[in-house]
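Repro:
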Amino acid sequence: MAFMQVQFFSETLHMAVAADVIIPQAVTHEIGMDSKENKEGNHPVLWLLHGATDDHTTWQRRTSIERYAASRGLAVVMPSAHLSSYSNLAHGGAFYDYISEELPEIMRSFFPLSAQRELNFIAGNSMGGYGALKIGINHPDRYAAIGCFSSAANRGKPEENSGDLFDNATWKMRNFIQYGGKDLTGTYEDTFYMAEKNKSLPILPRIFHSCGKDDFLIDRARETRDFFQHMEGNPYHYVYEEHEGIHGWDYWDAHIEDFLDFLHLDITDNKFTN
């Protein structure tokens, strides 16, 4: 595998940004690595989003994502989105547009990443899980699967502070920056609304949702579970799992592979099949 730290300029955000990128490289003499590569086309790609207190480096530093991706011939793009909730902020940058529109175009100009829907996946933890769910459901024509870890759907309006990550003043400031005092229920920010609106489309992403039993977001995760599980016919092929664990990297490192298994990626003779 090749690992690259990429600094570039975003026209959408009007500033310099960064992303960590893993690109498949099939090798035969690297100790302890089972590396595969699709040599008959562009690489399948996972767009992997970070949580609220982290940045583009955190998945690489705190998990074995490079090793997990290597045996599957999977490229991984890990962008930075600050405390944006992957939204077009009322008082800040258009991070939703950046992640969903500009970033894929830029990354595909730099690297041989597939643009085929069947070879594109999006996932994240905590704030990143919410971002992945929002972006994936809003763009069912672009992603074959969504991975949501220790997170939940959002109704397009400020949620009550939960856990102890932020004091109440900081939480209120974040909500003001994101929403600007507006109720965005029934818009792209309302994941429940968009999932219901899109459920009859002919092509939808599959959803894998996982949360620790002692996670402070478990109640909201179960609310999201109940919403999807009550959809007639399970149009999103929604899968929900709970395991022992809290809101932390031990859990996310252990269960990101569950999502990669959920993708059913297989490379035979360096040719990708799904």
